[in-house]
């Protein structure tokens, strides 16, 4: 039910993903009548996916502004919580939502626990970089402050994700900082830097500055959730502004006729390319289950990407990889009551 | 002497500014022979400015990676320190540098002191926003952490700058946060929010998220220097990546001939518009003197903007306005030994 565009975008996006991947069977949580109406009114090219979509009636909703603590107290019957219970019960491989991120994280921790004793899961998405590359940025807002220990957790989780899911043999890991010299940054960043240098086998590259993210300086860039959130959202805002300027520039200088004839398809492609942060699901990394957050402003296309992102993580059994690699040989995926560290600042 | 492109860019940029503003008289600090060579080899269109540029021989340099503490100990004879001494002695109205920012701030505090008892100056630049607007973002890296009190100082300084220098009658001020709800963010951001609400006459708009910066949601957006630096540099990196993609897209889809005939001027204009964060000087706000930092990667054009930015601040006597408005009626610009709070994490 989540997302700024409502269930139409999520249902159509889910249908698009189902058509693209014939293995998918989808269970949709929300008010039955509303969802069935959306399925019945799928455009013709998506209609065939309707038969692979099952509706679970869950009329309770998590409001966009609801605090995580409130969601934990009163959200047990919401469509979001019902979806996560289904995942926790092993009836699904992954859960995808475009709803309230803080609530999704809090309810996800309670339903699923975390892997390998990770106390604070993180949110990560792939940022497009030069040369058609990608870079995982984390945390994006689950932890507005992060100690050195947490930054090290984020780095290790991101590294496992880049290696396992994207098949990068030796992902390059970096810490976001205000300069590349060793004396720069906060105490927690400098301590995390010292610890990361000591982890055997980790291709740790030290500090990168903000422009290094898009320059492709690393495959995984780590920061606290306040910084990551600000960087991600500012990037979205800048991309949107620049798209508008590109359009204005070409309309002003080349005339609307030429733009009409030749430029529209190119401009449409550009718009998708220039607003790329919107077109990736964000992984809730460290949960003992696969949960992907779709951008709240995403259209059907954005939600389709989020579903396919979840499929990728299922294919590579990401939570098990995280549990094995971060928890040592004996680690299993452990269920934890995830309320201890919860707060509403996320 | 500073900047990635060396003194050629600064000398040509300074000459460009001098031609544009006939009131300007410029004193250039650096190795005499090098600077005189650059002045002698000014392109014809800039050559007339040479007679308004005086060279002060100052062969000592501040290296780009030098720590602020090192600059304070050993940089007293550098071209940067000599320039700031000249400003402190009242022989100049403003100082402009493309060199080491941390050193400029540390040496600037020692030479000039701060206004109105401001313990921590901040760095601010104007970010372009939609609808041809601008937004001052601060701090950009002088303070990697900032208490609520410091965030309030930054907000008040930014507000005075937007009102006095840009003539905005009631600048809208906002705090950067990870969400707009009151429960979001770090303790210092939430405390600063509470204090800003109590300042009479301040048009405080509460929280904005990262995309609000470019959307023009406020005239002044306040954050700590770690966040501001990450946001600014990530925006630069994204803008550069998108410029490259725009160019590729049009070359691929419209063919090089059409691009050659019609698109090049438009693309050139776009490149300047899309990389706008580079084309503003950054103000060292709170110093008892006007010091503008030009982007280290700026070309002559970027340095010209930085000089003209300094001129604007001189015209509106920004330090005196800050002293008067932030310090109450009796406040004067007070010289302070600025070493107490200096550290190398900036």
Automatic annotation (TrEMBL), chains A, B:
Q: Does the keyword 4Fe-4S apply?
A: no
Q: In which pathway does it act?
A: Lipid metabolism; phospholipid metabolism
Q: Which SUPFAM superfamilies match?
A: Isocitrate/Isopropylmalate dehydrogenase-like (SSF53659)
Q: Provide the assembly information.
A: Homodimer. Probably interacts with PlsY.
Instruction: List keywords of the entry alphabetically.
Output: Acyltransferase, Cytoplasm, Lipid biosynthesis, Lipid metabolism, Phospholipid biosynthesis, Phospholipid metabolism, Transferase
The reaction(s) catalysed by this protein are: a fatty acyl-[ACP] + phosphate = an acyl phosphate + holo-[ACP]
List, alphabetically, the GO terms of the cellular component aspect: cytoplasm
Its EC number(s): 2.3.1.274
Q: What does this protein do?
A: Catalyzes the reversible formation of acyl-phosphate (acyl-PO(4)) from acyl-[acyl-carrier-protein] (acyl-ACP). This enzyme utilizes acyl-ACP as fatty acyl donor, but not acyl-CoA.
> What sort of enzyme, by top EC class, is this?
transferase
Q: Which domain of life is it from?
A: Bacteria
Molecular function as annotated in GO: phosphate:acyl-[acyl carrier protein] acyltransferase activity
Task: Please tell me the species this chain comes from.
Answer: Halomonas shengliensis
According to UniProt, the name of this protein is Phosphate acyltransferase
Subcellular compartments: Cytoplasm
The record's comment on protein family reads: Belongs to the PlsX family.
The record's annotation in Pfam families points to:
FA_synthesis (PF02504)
Q: Which GO terms describe its biological process?
A: fatty acid biosynthetic process; phospholipid biosynthetic process
């Amino acid at each position: 039910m989540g997302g700024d565009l409502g269930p139409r975008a999520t249902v159509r996006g889910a249908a698009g993903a189902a058509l693209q991947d014939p293995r998918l069977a989808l269970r949709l949580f929300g008010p039955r009548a509303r969802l069935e109406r959306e399925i019945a009114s799928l455009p013709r090219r998506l209609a065939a996916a309707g038969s692979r979509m099952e509706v679970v009636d869950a009329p309770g909703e998590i409001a966009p502004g609801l605090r995580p603590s409130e969601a934990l107290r009163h959200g047990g019957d919401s469509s979001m919580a019902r979806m996560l219970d289904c995942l926790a019960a092993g009836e699904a491989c992954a859960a995808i939502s475009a709803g309230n991120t803080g609530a999704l994280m809090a309810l996800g921790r309670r339903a699923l626990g975390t892997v390998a004793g990770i106390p604070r899961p993180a949110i990560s998405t792939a940022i497009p970089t030069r040369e058609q590359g990608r870079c995982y940025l984390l945390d994006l807002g689950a932890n507005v402050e992060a100690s050195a220990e947490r930054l090290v957790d984020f780095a290790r989780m991101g590294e496992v994700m880049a290696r396992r899911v994207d098949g990068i043999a030796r992902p390059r890991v970096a810490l976001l900082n205000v300069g590349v010299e060793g004396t720069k940054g906060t105490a927690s960043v400098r301590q995390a830097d010292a610890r990361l240098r000591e982890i055997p086998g980790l291709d740790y590259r030290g500090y990168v500055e903000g422009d290094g993210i898009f320059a492709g300086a690393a495959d995984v860039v780590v920061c606290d959730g306040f910084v990551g959130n600000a960087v991600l959202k500012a990037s979205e805002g800048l991309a949107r502004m620049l798209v508008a300027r590109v359009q204005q520039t070409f309309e002003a200088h080349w005339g609307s006729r030429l733009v009409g004839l030749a430029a529209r398809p190119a401009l449409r492609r550009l718009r998708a390319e220039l607003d790329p942060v919107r077109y990736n699901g964000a992984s809730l990394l460290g949960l003992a289950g696969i949960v992907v957050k779709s951008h709240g402003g995403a259209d059907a296309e954005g939600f389709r990407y989020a579903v396919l992102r979840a499929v990728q993580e299922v294919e590579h059994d990401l939570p098990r990889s995280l549990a094995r690699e971060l928890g040592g040989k004996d680690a299993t995926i452990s269920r934890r009551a995830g309320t201890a560290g919860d707060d509403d600042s996320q």
